[in-house]
């Protein structure tokens, strides 16, 4: 699904690289959490997967036909924008050229947000807006779902619901999930693999291995 | 008053401006680009001056030069990613420089002042048809690109993932802004045009509605503002542009007071 070969990146194109000679392969149907300290390049790697930025060196291939993306809530601070939940999803449906109008209601039902269809996005709580963004991201059943720190600014109960839902769609629908994480518990319990980034380098490991590496580093 | 043909032309032009300006303005305001309207209205003055200098229709001159400036702003955005407000200063300097140089050179054999302050008397039938044509084209483009432009304003990254050609649509949008600016300057005038673009939207935003409802209310407020401005300026014998700007501010203040009153009551 995602393959990086000798991938390097720095914002000015010169060393030192945020990501330095990275090799990574994420297979179809996997749930991979990208973990590491702040500033280690997690979000940069995600932007490279989504083709928001171009690699400085090497290449990254993504074979997904349709990608769903859930931005980090702190980055997505467009809370004053006058748009209802229904409008946000329905316009997105039209951009994806999905003809079935029920897709919006169906996806809101999946994340338990049907009652909020008429609410303004800016009036929702952290957990509620994250659920709506997930409902938008899974529109048209993407083969790859990319999330940037989905639990940021979300209360514990909503976190449980969100991670439960992500695990469910990964298992039942086979949607590949790549999630930039700072939530250790969620990453270890949900992921099939964890990509551990540190000092510009990274490696894939099992959640158990990562937990050991994490404890050792503390 | 309605018996005068210049007034009939002015009313038709005002109806189209009051629909077009908020349709463009809502995207500019929500993308925090409302000052682009101000920059491009100054750019249109340079276009008017160039049009008059070569004996062409000044509205057409304004449209062409403002479109070029709109595309220039979009182009410069790549080079000044962190200082986008600087781009407006650059384009503003270029436009005002050209306008003042041409006007002061004495090569224009017509009055450019009416474009600065807005005038009802100078709206010709040709202007009216040009305004109708450009407005219809712009509104059609807006209807066609509605979802793309909404998402570029709301969440540009999501728009890119959905396959929206953000860069291309930004260029198209800059031409739409140029169109709105150039058709409006006859009546509203260069100096207060940005108030027609931003204030009806600012007023509608106070109602706390969704996007479509905010757009509809922006058009309603825009119609109220411009028609009141037009009729009152006729009776007071003042330039319609300046008075329309005053009406825009007055309506905004009234809505703010009404909102506060409702909140206190609840």
How would you portray this structure in words?
In chain A, the strands form two sheets. Chain A has a six-stranded mixed β-sheet with strand order 5-6-7-3-8-9, sandwiched between helices. Chain A has helices at 42-49, 85-95, 102-110, 126-137, 156-172, 184-190, 207-217; strands at residues 2-9, 19-26, 31-35, 57-62, 67-70, 144-148, 176-180, 193-198, 201-205. In chain A, helix 3 (102-110) crosses helix 4 and helix 6 runs antiparallel to helix 7 (207-217). In chain A, a hairpin with a 2-residue loop joins strand 8 (193-198) and strand 9 (201-205). Chain A is of the alpha/beta class and 218 residues long. With 266 residues, chain B is mostly helical. Chain B is built from twelve helices and no strands. The mean pLDDT of chain B is 87. The A-B interface holds A 50, 52, 67-69, 71, 76, 78, 81-84, 86-88, 91-92, 94-96, 118, 120, 136 and B 30, 146-148, 150-151, 153-155, 157-164, 205, 208-214.
Summarize the structure.
Chain A is an alpha/beta fold and 218 residues long. Chain A has helices at residues 42-49, 85-95, 102-110, 126-137, 156-172, 184-190, 207-217, and strands spanning 2-9, 19-26, 31-35, 57-62, 67-70, 144-148, 176-180, 193-198, 201-205. Helix content of chain A is 34%, strand content 24%.
Q: Say what oligomer this is.
A: heterodimer
CATH architecture of chain A: 3-Layer(aba) Sandwich
Text of the CATH class of chain A: Alpha Beta
Strand count of chain B:
0
Can you tell me the residue ranges of chain B where pLDDT is under 50 for at least 5 consecutive residues?
Answer: none
Averaged pLDDT of chain A, please? 90
Topology:
The complex is a heterodimer of chains A (218) and B (266).
Chain A: E1 2-9, E2 19-26, E3 31-35, H1 42-49, E4 57-62, E5 67-70, H2 85-95, H3 102-110, H4 126-137, E6 144-148, H5 156-172, E7 176-180, H6 184-190, E8 193-198, E9 201-205, H7 207-217
Helix pairs in contact in A: 3-4, 6-7
Chain B: H1 5-30, H2 34-53, H3 58-76, H4 84-105, H5 113-117, H6 125-144, H7 146-154, H8 156-161, H9 166-188, H10 193-205, H11 211-236, H12 240-265
Helix pairs in contact in B: 1-2, 1-6, 1-9, 1-10, 1-11, 2-3, 2-4, 2-9, 2-10, 3-4, 3-9, 6-9, 10-11, 10-12, 11-12
